[in-house]
């Protein structure tokens, strides 16, 4: 076996190679891309006959470079940068740091402690595609939220009547009206007839007259006014922000369609969709973040730990505290939290579990986190056994009284 530390940067990689005794075999800086991969292959070929004898440590689990390493047959470990930083402190106390030094540190880490780290998963290309689309879709939604928050802040400064009139700033009705009348002065000139035309052009088909009258009355509400030049400046920024949100809405809808197409092609999609409260978007996010490598999680506990739903214990002497995990994948945590909340309306077993946790003194978020943890375990069983979700099987471990209540509710 030989061990390789790869400290990557945008334009180059610092590589350090050592044997099982820790003896330095080679060290070199290689360029990014095909040329760098070729040099790396030549570097290790003189010390290993089979790619399976090469163990590589690198501080990322994605990208074309990592993909090339995995496809070559190397054993690749993605080391969390935080863990690498802590490991560096074991070797030097001076605080010194360099790229060649980090490459050596990564090689030493996989030589001695690789059993404590996670090997890069062998997910299928279809699962990787779902992950890319799911993350992009969620990122655009977060960007839309930031844009609407900026819009809300701006309207509060010069056009409070708009905030009173529109509950959802990202709604097509709101955006259409604000694009037409971004200031109180412009809004005062909008008649109900003009508003009806704007709403029709935006796609509204029902209750047009009632909604138009309500908007006209709301925008004409007496309120404090900013000076003319200030109001005009705010109106210009509002129109720009509205245009951004409109485009974000269009791209989010388009990506949602692409995401659905990719997700439905995956053989595990039916399993995820069988879970109560899980639709295409949440199912795709979970599949993308969990991956589909059958050997990635040793058991349900391992999957729960990766998801960040299982609690951690901090014990020292006579003091022991159980805490929630805060270092976790935020995208996966968000999907699981939403999925657990949605399941309350669709799964009698989940509703009963949540109600019991609340009755025992848990807050809403504590009970929801515990429910999400239970769902991860159920999901693991379904994926490993290649079976769809069954309400009775999932909650049969509960007491007989609870089981009867679940069956009655179902």
Brief digest:
This protein is α/β, with parallel strands linked by helices and 410 residues long. Helices cover 61% and strands 10% of the residues.
Describe the largest sheet.
Answer: 5 strands, mixed
Structural class: alpha/beta
Biggest sheet strand line-up:
3-2-1-4-5
**Number of strand segments:** 7
Radius of gyration: 28 Å
- Residue fraction in strands: 5-15%
Shape category = globular
Average pLDDT figure? 91
Number of domain units: 3
* Unreliable stretches: none
Residue share in helix = 55-70%
Continuous helix count? 19
Distance between the termini: 56 Å
What string gives the helices and strands in order? EEEHEHEHHHHHHHHHHHHEEHHHHH
């Amino acid at each position: 076996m030989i061990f390789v530390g790869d400290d990557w940067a945008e334009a180059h990689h610092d590589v350090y190679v050592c044997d099982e005794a820790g003896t330095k075999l080679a060290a070199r800086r290689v360029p990014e891309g095909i040329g760098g991969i070729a040099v790396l292959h030549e570097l290790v070929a003189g010390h290993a006959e089979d790619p399976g004898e090469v163990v590589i440590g690198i501080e990322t689990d994605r990208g074309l470079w990592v993909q090339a390493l995995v496809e070559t047959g190397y054993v690749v470990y993605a080391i969390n940068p935080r863990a690498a930083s802590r490991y560096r402190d074991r070797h030097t106390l001076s605080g010194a740091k360099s790229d060649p030094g980090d490459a050596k540190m990564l090689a030493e880490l996989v030589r001695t402690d690789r059993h404590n780290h996670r090997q890069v998963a062998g997910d299928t290309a279809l699962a990787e595609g779902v992950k890319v689309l799911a993350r992009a879709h969620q990122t655009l939604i977060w960007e839309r939220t930031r844009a609407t928050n900026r819009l809300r802040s701006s309207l509060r400064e010069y056009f409070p009547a708009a905030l009173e009139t529109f509950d959802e700033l990202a709604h097509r009705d709101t955006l259409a009206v604000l694009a037409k009348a971004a200031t109180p002065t412009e809004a005062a000139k909008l008649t109900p007839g003009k508003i009806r035309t704007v709403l029709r052009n935006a796609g509204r088909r029902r209750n047009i007259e009632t909604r138009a009258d309500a908007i006209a009355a709301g925008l004409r509400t007496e309120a404090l006014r900013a000076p003319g030049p200030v109001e005009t400046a705010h109106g210009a920024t509002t129109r720009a922000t509205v245009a951004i949100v409109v485009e974000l809405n269009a791209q989010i809808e388009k990506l949602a369609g692409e995401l659905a197409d990719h997700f439905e092609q995956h053989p595990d999609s039916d399993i995820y969709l069988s879970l109560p409260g899980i639709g295409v978007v949440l199912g795709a996010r979970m599949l993308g973040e969990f991956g589909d490598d059958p050997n990635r999680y040793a058991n349900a506990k391992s999957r729960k730990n990766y998801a960040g739903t299982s609690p951690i214990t901090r014990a020292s002497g006579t003091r022991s505290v159980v805490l929630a995990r805060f270092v976790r994948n935020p995208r996966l945590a968000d999907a699981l939290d939403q999925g657990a909340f949605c399941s309350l309306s669709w799964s009698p077993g989940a509703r009963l579990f949540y109600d019991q946790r609340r009755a025992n003194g848990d807050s809403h978020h504590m009970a929801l986190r515990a429910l999400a943890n239970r769902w991860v375990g159920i999901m693991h069983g379904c994926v490993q056994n290649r079976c769809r979700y069954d309400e009775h099987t999932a909650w049969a471990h509960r007491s007989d009284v609870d089981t009867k209540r679940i069956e009655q509710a179902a």
